[in-house]
């Protein structure tokens, strides 16, 4: 084809008059989304069976052309993946705007000295990607931005009249995971939304926290995927009040404990077993473990039960745990409350750890479940040559079990769900403002530390979780709000390109009203191949102009998630799509309530 004719094809969209082999060479610039213009490098046949990998969702994201792996735990997003990310970000922007938050974009490079000042650099060396410039200045790739944003605010805000302040960003974060896995669910580079809130008083900060929770529930409700909200441990972030947002999944690394009757819901890290003070017996069994290294051991003599001395033991210490014989699974989080130095990498066992098989330990720490009679334990220990510290637990050391009575309402029972954490809200108080000198003058003209909160959503993790949770034997199946395109349109037989365009235009006229978008599959592939590819990519709706269109101007519309396949007139099409978009969202709510 001559250059002149190709140019005419581009300008005047004469593609319908060209031979099929020439169609492929035409660049469509009519403003319509077309797969012939859209780069979707599947690299693998849509006809292949699903892989038996660790995460089918990640396998499908790769096969369908959403992403490619660059390095271990690091991924490149391709056009389809970027559309999903942008839609998640757009939904975030909507709810952050409703919250009164301003969007910023902070540098991915942070100062190691700043992290040392906040106290978070020590003990976390293995998690950081560290670097130095040519002058030897120490930097790191930021896994989060509390230090940087607090410093900015400390230098810019000086009066309580400048507060409250709410700032957020959606950006790349970095964490040198020891074992990246499950694709986007546990990577070393990831996209996260982080919101930082600043208030002049603790009371105002807690009100802000409640407002953020409302915004988060709105965001996850709009996403229309069943989710769980659970009380959580603040961990290294600091603060004393936090909640997690989870998508239930057997692939999840968290366990959420919730009640069948009330709103009680917590991460298993917070579970502490209540015991009846009268439920004490003489029978027991002993489980062994050890500490990681240096441990503070308080020497207690059994006869006098008086503390003799407290000195650090600079080697591994034997840990003996006395529990009722019917306890089969121990709560490692409860044990860590009593002994933070406990080495959780060492499996709890009825046998002595190998380190102590041949020689007596320099010291021993004994932990007692309150259901084991203390006098029996003391008698069992008897005289001993080693330094020993006895720690009595005030709560049972059992793991939570499904079917237990709810500790909050007592009428419901507990159920345990494996889940993927996709969001977390933290009330920080003055955890960062105090060491980083973020202060304001209050109404009494006194200098006070700013009360803070930080609130995250794992954007790339959410993409990976949505892909994994909604996949079936045919491929991905995106929620309406974050699908790369809501509708894909294709033709069969001798249907003209103009007819396909007319259907596209009818949907596009109502795209803002319906909050949907469409793309035309005009690639030179058989209809069966294109239908399989559409299932693989996971468009919520597939529209085919085929026999029904030729006979009575009706399109066939398919929705795999709803098990739907119907013929609809062009006049009724947009109303039909809007109705079934609502059905898809309600279907997700019903799944959550169920």
From TrEMBL:
Aminoacyl-transfer RNA synthetases class-II family profile domain span: 81-479
Q: Identify the keywords attached in UniProt to this record, alphabetized.
A: Aminoacyl-tRNA synthetase, ATP-binding, Ligase, Nucleotide-binding, Protein biosynthesis
Please name the InterPro entries in this protein's record: aa-tRNA-synt_IIb, aa-tRNA-synth_II, aa-tRNA-synth_II/BPL/LPL, Anticodon-bd, Anticodon-bd_dom_sf, Pro-tRNA-ligase_IIa, Pro-tRNA_synthetase
- Any one Gene Ontology BP term: prolyl-tRNA aminoacylation
PROSITE patterns in the cross-refs: AA_TRNA_LIGASE_II
Q: What is its EC number?
A: 6.1.1.15
Q: What reaction(s) does this enzyme catalyze?
A: tRNA(Pro) + L-proline + ATP = L-prolyl-tRNA(Pro) + AMP + diphosphate
- A Gene Ontology MF term for this entry? ATP binding
Q: What does the entry list under GO cellular component?
A: mitochondrion
**Which family would the database say this protein is a member of?**
Belongs to the class-II aminoacyl-tRNA synthetase family.
Q: What is this protein called?
A: proline--tRNA ligase
């Amino acid at each position: 084809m001559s250059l002149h004719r190709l140019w005419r094809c581009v300008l005047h969209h004469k593609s319908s008059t060209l031979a099929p082999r020439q169609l492929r060479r035409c660049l469509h610039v009519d403003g319509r989304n077309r797969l012939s213009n859209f780069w979707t490098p599947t690299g693998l046949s849509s006809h292949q069976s699903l892989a038996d990998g660790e995460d089918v969702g990640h396998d499908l994201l790769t096969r369908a052309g959403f992403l490619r792996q660059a390095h271990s735990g690091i991924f490149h997003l391709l056009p389809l993946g970027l559309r999903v990310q942008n839609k998640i970000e757009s939904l975030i922007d909507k709810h952050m705007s409703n919250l009164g938050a301003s969007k910023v974009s902070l540098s991915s490079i942070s100062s190691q000295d700043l992290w040392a000042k906040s106290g978070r650099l020590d003990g976390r060396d293995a998690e950081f990607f560290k670097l130095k410039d040519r002058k030897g200045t120490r930097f790191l790739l930021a896994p989060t931005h509390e230090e940087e944003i607090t410093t900015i605010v400390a230098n810019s805000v000086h009066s309580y009249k400048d507060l409250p302040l709410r700032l957020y960003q959606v950006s790349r974060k970095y964490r040198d995971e020891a074992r990246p896995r499950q694709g986007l669910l546990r990577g070393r580079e990831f996209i996260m939304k982080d919101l930082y809130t600043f208030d002049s008083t603790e009371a105002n900060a807690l009100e802000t926290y409640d407002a953020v929770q409302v915004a988060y529930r709105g965001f996850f409700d709009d996403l229309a995927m069943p989710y769980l909200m659970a009380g959580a441990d603040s961990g290294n972030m600091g603060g004393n009040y936090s909640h997690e947002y989870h998508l239930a999944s057997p692939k999840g690394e968290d366990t959420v404990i919730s009640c069948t009757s009330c709103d009680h819901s917590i991460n298993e890290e917070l579970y502490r077993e209540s015991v009846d003070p009268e439920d004490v017996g003489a029978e027991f069994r002993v489980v062994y473990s050890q500490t990681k290294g240096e441990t503070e051991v308080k020497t207690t003599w059994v006869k006098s039960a008086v503390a003799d001395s407290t000195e650090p033991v600079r080697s591994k210490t034997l840990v003996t745990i006395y529990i009722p014989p019917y306890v089969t699974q121990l709560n490692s989080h409860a044990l860590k409350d009593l002994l933070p130095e406990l080495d959780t990498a060492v499996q709890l066992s009825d046998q002595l750890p190998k380190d102590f098989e041949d020689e007596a330990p320099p010291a021993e720490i004994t932990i007692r479940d309150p259901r084991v009679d203390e006098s029996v334990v003391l008698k069992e220990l008897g005289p001993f040559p080693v330094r020993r510290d006895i720690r009595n637990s005030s709560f049972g050391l059992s793991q939570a079990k499904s079917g237990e009575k709810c500790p909050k309402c007592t009428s419901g029972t507990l159920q345990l769900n494996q889940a993927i954490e996709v969001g977390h809200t933290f009330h920080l108080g003055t955890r960062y403002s105090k060491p980083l000198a973020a202060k304001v003058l209050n109404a009494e003209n006194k200098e006070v530390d700013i009360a803070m909160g930080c609130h995250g959503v794992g954007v790339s993790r959410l993409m990976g979780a949505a892909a994994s949770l909604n996949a079936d034997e045919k491929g991905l199946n995106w929620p309406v709000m974050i699908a790369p395109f809501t509708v894909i349109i294709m033709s069969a037989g001798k249907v003209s390109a103009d007819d396909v365009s007319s259907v596209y235009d009818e949907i596009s006229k109502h795209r803002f009203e319906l909050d949907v978008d469409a793309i035309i599959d005009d690639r030179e592939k058989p209809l069966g191949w294109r239908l399989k590819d559409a299932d693989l990519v996971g468009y919520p709706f597939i529209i085919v102009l085929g026999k029904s269109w030729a006979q009575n101007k009706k399109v066939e519309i398919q929705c795999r998630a709803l098990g739907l396949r119907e013929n609809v007139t062009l006049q009724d099409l947009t109303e039909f799509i809007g109705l079934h978009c609502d059905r898809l969202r309600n279907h997700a709510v019903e799944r959550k309530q169920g």
